[in-house]
């Protein structure tokens, strides 16, 4: 397992402070079936309205999904949008005591009109923004810094999310960075689209996209420029701002990482089906901060952030990506060399990721577990596993280790090693993962995985099946399936040996 996967397996909760522009995203969903009679514009027939945390609030939600305890520091108005935003933060478990109310300005609100084209897929039609970009007053800054000071001692990392809405003034950003550095806390910045990044000087790291980086350094690059073309851009950012690292995100080309005093490195990403890029920058900042808070080096932190952002763009709107989903995504990237074989810890992560991902209103995925020696794979095995997989959404096949098979079947078995058996089973499309257990029964494994469905052949009595009582007591079910007559490993081995 790679060093990054080892770090993820040992992941620990952490604390973060998010400073910046807090927003409320209002999603107005409806159907679009006609044009208006009085103008050549589509008519949105509203079906439902949702409120979501946006801007810095979305970074908070992303961090919570990555196991952080989060304190929010920012500004809201004295209006209904502020109440809705506070409610969304509370729902996520974010401490919003650091949100300062300023009656002179509205809560930044983005109202998105989203139509379902022919009742099929969501398409953003229009957006209406309510905001003020005026710099916050000195009195508000004092209150914000007081909130920061209160949270700083207990935090592990500080994030600045600047959308240019008036909160992240030069004076305020410099005060945040100086206070954090004095307390020994790293500061990671997702910058606004500015021509001058002086306000971020002294931060630990900065995460602009390619366009933002070009603008801030006045070093434009031609369209389609390769990642190494941004070496000079990153170098200028690190030198001028006194950064520990600069991370320039490059869309499908991944990211360029430059650590102070080292050579720039390209961090590749995986090609994705992009549905909506909204929130990708927020996710990069949150994931990078989370990885650094867990002691992961810069290169692997960027790898982790790339994977998180890739999953984000596959969703519609801002959807926090759980740690388990990112961990699973990175695990699956090793499938070409490792097949579907998982350690117990890896399987727990993969199952948790499946259960945490219920996007688009889908029901909670059901995990099915079948176990056995599966020594010489035959048609009876394949039939049973196909039917087992059809009982849920993800089939785990647990196989006895070699010593366990010998204890159960005798000294001449198994015919194939556990590694070979796992590889063969992994080639079956219906199998999601394979795991090896050393004990004579999979009882401990079943209690670890907590399958929704436990499958066994009908030749077994329910009361004799290891783990059956646990699964039923946990709200799951046990399914006994008919075996294929005349098909068994023992008979197959005997027939081969007799010829």
Description of the structure:
With 499 residues, the protein is an alpha/beta fold. The chain folds into 2 domains: 3-321, UDP-N-acetylmuramoyl-L-alanine:D-glutamate ligase; 344-498, Rossmann fold (3-Layer(aba) Sandwich), CATH 3.40.50.620. Helix content is 37%, strand content 25%. The protein has 18 helices and 19 strands. The protein has helices at residues 3-9, 56-65, 80-92, 138-152, 170-182, 210-217, 231-241, 280-293, 298-313, 323-332, 335-338, 344-356, 379-389, 402-409, 418-426, 443-449, 468-473, 489-498, and strands at 14-20, 22-35, 42-55, 68-76, 95-101, 108-117, 121-130, 157-161, 187-190, 205-206, 245-249, 255-259, 265-267, 341-342, 367-372, 394-400, 433-437, 453-457, 477-481. Strands 5-4-1-8-9-10-11-12-13 form a 9-stranded mixed β-sheet, sandwiched between helices. A 6-stranded parallel β-sheet has the order 14-17-16-15-18-19. Helix 13 (379-389) links the parallel strand 15 (367-372) and strand 16 (394-400). Helix 4 (138-152) runs parallel beside helix 5 (170-182), helix 8 (280-293) runs antiparallel to helix 9 and helix 9 crosses helix 10 (323-332). The mean pLDDT is 90.
Characteristics of this structure?
2 domains, 18 helices, 499 residues, alpha/beta, UDP-N-acetylmuramoyl-L-alanine:D-glutamate ligase, Rossmann fold
Describe the largest sheet.
Answer: 9 strands, mixed
CATH architecture of the largest domain: 3-Layer(aba) Sandwich
Report the CATH superfamily of the largest domain: Ribokinase
- Mean pLDDT metric: 90
- Major sheet: arrangement of strands: 5-4-1-8-9-10-11-12-13
Approximate strand percentage: 25-35%
CATH topology of the largest domain: UDP-N-acetylmuramoyl-L-alanine:D-glutamate ligase
Could you give the count of β-strands? Answer: 19
Number of helices: 18
User: What is the domain total for the residues?
Assistant: 2
Low-confidence stretches: none
The CATH class of the largest domain turns out to be: Alpha Beta
Rg calc? 27 Å
The N- to C-terminal Cα distance equals 43 Å
Shape: elongated
